[in-house]
Amino acid sequence: MRSVNDFRYIHEEATAWRHHLHQNPELDYRVHNTANFVAEKLASFGINHIETGIAETGVVAVIQGAHGDGPTIGLRADMDALPIVEQSGKPWTSLVEGKMHACGHDGHTAMLLGAAKHLAATRNFKGSVALIFQPAEEDGQGANRMVQQGLMDRFNISQVYGMHNMPGLEVGKFGIRDGSIMAALDEFDIVITGRGGHAATPHHTIDPVVIGAQIVTALQTLVSRNLDPTDALVVSVPKFTGSESYHIIPDSVTLGGTVRSLSPALRDFAEKQIKTCAENIAAAFGATVEFRHRRLEPLTFNHTEAFERATAAARSLVGREAVNDQVKPVMVSEDFSYMLQARPGAFLFLGNGATAGLHNPTYDFDDNAIPYGIGYWVNLVERTLAA
Hints:
Layout: H1 11-23, H2 32-44, E1 49-54, E2 58-64, E3 72-78, H3 105-122, E4 128-134, H4 142-148, H5 151-154, E5 157-166, E6 174-175, E7 179-182, E8 184-193, E9 197-198, H6 208-219, H7 221-224, E10 233-241, E11 248-249, E12 252-261, H8 264-285, E13 288-295, E14 300-302, H9 304-318, E15 323-324, H10 336-342, E16 345-351, H11 370-384
Parallel strand pairs: 3-4, 3-5, 5-16, 6-15
Antiparallel strand pairs: 1-2, 2-4, 6-16, 7-14, 8-12, 8-13, 9-11, 10-12
């Protein structure tokens, strides 16, 4: 297998692509210029099968290997930026006010383009590789829309792989794990209706603010007093909306929160118990509750065989010790999970060094990581589709 030095020849060019994308960020499904840039680069590499407009602005290109028939595997990069004012101070700072690549999707796109250029030139594999450039990852539904529009069947994809940069992980290192690697994401609203009145006479009211406060406190025990300490579940209530007056107790208040879980059983438990907890506390005070729960992004779950292939591909690039195959799962979510529901595959983390955290206005993708990402993709393809 190839080492990272085999891909340094494309480093400077891919860095220039990355800087161009960074300076011209676009949001959600409105990544029209980004998608055009991607499609033009893919065509310039001699790739003939390029399809655009999937999930509005998604791009998929297929490269046929030189060694005969075989399966098709998918490699995915996300393209969208965030509505954040950049403060990185880099020469390639965003030229679009209020938008920036604060999650490294510019780097992800540049690395997959670099892999596309190399694979199109060498084609040292059998079967095919489908290069998936996805919009609206930050929206949480871009991957789902591509799947719903027939991505997997349309391109006959049998396995699918994704990658994300990880600040705090040294450049040149990778992190991956079998099974759950990123959390499922849910949101909920609890509308508590009591009886409002003057703050000077609270005994004439059924105060939904006090009830809401007790519900927030009680929800903190769902994890600490109901689950094994080794189970991973987060319940947070960042929203609490009531009266805007200092002197009026409102008729109702609304709580809003998020649930992050690392197993389907924990996800079911949280939805049931949050509702039960809120209703019982409200009833004890004579109030009522309207509960709304939304299941958003699923659990990002690595399938064992694909995990083993991804791990082996990364280790063939950088060595065994540079790949942590038992990295801790993270409680943020990732819409690549929809693709992993549709097909077996794996998702791993690429070291981005000692940069600011993701979604931070001072964040920037580390260009030194580019040849590692390109090399991982190429080794994964050549190992999985070995002639």
